[in-house]
Amino acid sequence: MDGFNGEETLKHTIEAICTGTARPFNGAETSAIAKRPREGLIQFLEDGLAPDEQADRRVHGGPEMAIHLYPLDHHDHWREALGAIDLLDEPGAFGSNLAVRGVTEDRVHIGDRFRAGSALIEISQPRQPCWKIEHRFGKAANSKGMVSTIVKSGKCGWYFRVIEFGEAQAGDSLERVAVGETEWSVARAFAALMAGKASRDELVELSQMEALSPKLRERAQAKLA
Asked: What angle in degrees, to the nearest 10, is found between the helix axes of 214-224 and 186-193?
């Protein structure tokens, strides 16, 4: 145990740090969901990794969605669902910036802080899945329904904000140094706000949760109204 309110120690190796550029994706639309591993030290800045791009800054990127982590553990689930497709061998297949195994939505909380190299990052919100995931995996026989599966299963991944700028590289540790909202795992927050399973009391709590991104606090408030 690490002494953080009885929560377990979390320290795992960053297997890859991935970035991408906006490229043609669906007709005239562009996307930077295709993230590729980078070598050497990568800067963690307010808006994310340098360099990294997001094609639609309304729904990706910015200080509250600066760094994305989609657990490598879930790639195993998708291999069973979709088959052994090459795309699942890529650490950034789901648009993830950090490729880490052994840490999942039920083991981390909104507001948890992690040291990644010299950077300090904090979980700000679950990731809401969108159609681009299905489009990216479109050649797989069972790719239709991936978004629905993510909503039902809670295999969503999450975003970090950057608290202290720094640098990290593949092989460094991602280590939890402080626990945030101990009653609010990323899995619970996702179920409440993305899967529509929140009680009124939960929505009140989420709407007032400072560690939760302002966008999702507003969503909770809107659901109350």
From this structure: 40
Distance CA 200, CA 153 (A): 22
What is the C-alpha to C-alpha distance for residues 187 and 175, in angstroms, rounded to an integer?
19
Tokens describing residue 77: 């689930």
Residue appearing with tokens 């909770």:
220
With vertex at residue 4, the alpha carbon angle to CA 91 and CA 123, rounded to the nearest 5 degrees, is 40
pTM of the model: 0.93
User: By the 8 A CB rule, do 125 and 137 touch?
Assistant: no
User: What architecture (CATH level 2) is domain 11-183?
Assistant: Beta Barrel (2.40)
pLDDT tens for each residue of 132-181: 999 999 877 678 899 999 999 999 999 999 999 999 999 999 999 999 99
CA gap 197, 192 in Å, rounded = 5
| Lookup result for tokens 């939505």 | 105
CA 61-209-33 angle, 5° bins: 20
DSSP letters for 69-87: E--THHHHHHHHHH-S-GG
| Residue 48, phi-psi category: left (phi > 0), alpha (psi -120 to 50), beta (remainder) | left
Structure tokens at 17: 């740090």
